[in-house]
Every structure is written in structure tokens, then in C-alpha cells.
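WARN retry 2 of 3 for item q-0093 after timeout on previous attempt; input resubmitted unchanged.
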Amino acid sequence: MADKTHSEPGTPGVLSRLAGIAVVAVVLAGIYVGYQALQVLFPPNTYETAMLATVADTVSADGVLLFDETYISGSGTLGYLAADGERVSAGAAVAEIYSSPEQAGLRQQLTALNDQIELLQRSQNTTATQLDSLRKERSGALYDLMDALDSSAYDETAQGEENYILAQNKLWVITGEVSDFSAQIAALTQQSAQVQAQLGAPTQIAAPQTGYFIRSTAAGRLNAGADDILALDAAGLEAYLNSDPELPLDGCAGKLVSGFTWRYVGLCSAKEGEKLLGDNGKPLTRSVKIKFPGQMETPLKASVSEVSIDEASGLARFVVTCEVINGDVLRLSRAKAQIIVDETTGLRIPIEAVHYLKEDGTESETQGENYIPGVYVKYGNLARFCKIDPVDSAHPLVTDGDYCIVMPSSTDKTKTISEVRLYDEIIVSGQNLYDGKLL
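OK item q-0093 returned
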């Protein structure tokens, strides 16, 4: 058998192959370096979609809520007949005292039975013409229930569940799946009467006056009166807040808040406190909003009553007055708040994407008084220059990090000259951009 010939290292065949590999490597390295150089000299265009955003100018504060409140005496094993935030009339029963835990359980059972009876009675009050609206009502109730669960608003889930069951029951009546709920109502009524007999007549606690009720288990009280707190200056308020001023409602069934107006006496930095002042140095005359992060996220319309800035301590004391009341607010005594001074809604545009054109159409490197601001937008394979509003009193500069908020395009040119639309592809960076450039 013939011997196979192998090239030994150092022979011409091996050397030529190694030389070829080296040449290929050098060429590839050259291509890579050239590509990187081109990327530096002529970087590719980058884009960002114009999205709608709301930027709020806020003041963060710590403070206390002042209500016109009356405490309702009561102790022992209590059961409640009124919900937190419910407005009750003078003399209405808001709670009752139980002699045993079993009696408390009977009240809960009786309340549940009566709620079921009422729901079934309401379910029968429907007509065949409501079919489409009830289907929408059922869907809406389901979505509301899911939203409440997603947002952890568990207080709202019970109402959402009731609305869904009510719509479903009415649909069963209309479609003939259920003739009526008479048998169920009769059975529940009989059961309710038996539970009522076992419950007896517990001692009830009545509201001394008309107002909004809040349970003692849901709220506390401040250890100082409203007048004393309102008399504190910034340093005094800071000391008061640091003294742990909230106490439990011991020996009380709850409290009643009369009227619709309440006040928030807050403390913030002097710099943020200036946001609550107008150009004349007096409290803002326009409305603001107040919310309590982590406790009540829904902002409520309010007004600024007082602002005093203590330059020596670097603090500002202020009073905000609100005429919107609900159970969430009533639960608060001492709380951190956010005062929303102003809100701007518009398109979120990268600041680096803004260009300024001179009157002759050439681009300026810096902003000028008469230069036209705008951004380049990708329309198909063309770059188009779209104006945005210049910064002035009607269109103040609002930023959000590395972005600015601009007005979206509108047919009403008295409000905005902006030509940028929602979802436009903004060219953030590009070489030698001009209107009509082929991309």
C-alpha cells in the first residue's frame, strides 16, 4: 500500500496556508476598524416615539388634618351599623354593644342575610328592554371589580361584587333562566327572623348630631386642638410633628365629622413652599390638588389658605383647605402629603432632539430669541421638520429628566403651533438633518 504524504511544519505548503489565513485576518480586521470609524464619523439615526405624558409639579409635606369632629362614647364589644365615611343623621344608630362574641356573630349573620334579601328584591325589578344595557352593566361591574383588585382597593371590591351579582341576576330573569327569586327571598326572610330572635336587642349607640361617621378602629385623634395647632409657626409645627401627636380613640365607638370642609396644616422646605406662592408673594389663588401617598392616592381639589416661610430654619408652614370628604380622608390624622401645584400633559420629547432654525432656514447651534424650535420626524423615508411651541408664558418649559413636554398638534392654532403628533417617530440624533432629507 502506498504511503500517504504529510506536509511537515515549515514546508512550503503549510507556510502558504498560514500566510493566506493571516491575510484574511488582516482584511477582516481592516473592515472592522473601517466600520467602527464610519460609525464614529457617520453614526446611524436613532429614533424615539412621541408618547403622551403628564408631569406634575408637587410639594412634599408632613402635617396633620383638622376636622370639625365630635367623639362618640362607647366601649366593650362593639359592632358597627354604619360604614366608614357614611353620612348619618342625628339619632341614627351607628354601633351597638354586645354581651358576648356569639351575639356579635349573630349581628354579622343577620346583616349578611338582609343584604342578600335586598339584592334579590332589586334583581326582580327589571324589564326585557334592558337586556343590552344589563350586559354592558355586568361587563362594567366585572372590570371595576378587577381594577379594584389590581389596585389593592379592597374596600371597593364588595360593592363591585354586589353590582356584578345584581346585573347577572337581572339577566337570568330577563332570559327566563329564573322566573323570580320569591322562594329564595321567603327562605332568607324566615332565616333572618330566627337570627333576629337569637340576637335580641343589643344596646345601641346613636349619633349625637348629623355628620360623617368613622369607626374608632379605623382612625385616631390628635392630642391638641385645631386652634392650638393653627397657632404654631414653622418651628413649632416641626416640634409638634416630631412629638408623635396621634392618639388612639380609646373609650370611643368612633367620631363624627360635621360639615364638608377640612384643613391640612403642613410643613415643607422653604424652597418648595415658594411654589405655593403667586408672583405677588401671596398664597396661590388658583386651585391645587392634595393626595396622601400610600394612604389615599386619589387627588382632591383644594386651595391654599396660608403660607409662611421661615428663612432661618429653611422651612415653610402652610394651610390647605379642601371641601371634598370621604372615608379614606376621615381615617387620617397625621399624614405625609403631596400638594400638586401644577400639571402639564403633552408629548414627551427628548431634549437633545430639539433643533432651532434661523429665519433663512439654516440651523443654529444654540437657542435664539427669533429662532424656530422643532424636531425632525420620520415620515416614511423622509425627515420632516415639525415646529414646536417656543418657550413663553403660554408655553412654559416643563422638563422630565432628559425630556421636555410639548403640546401636540391641534387644529386650533391660537393655542399651539406645534406640528408634532402622538406616536410620531422623533429623530433623536442624525447627521446633516434637513427638511425633506432622504433617510
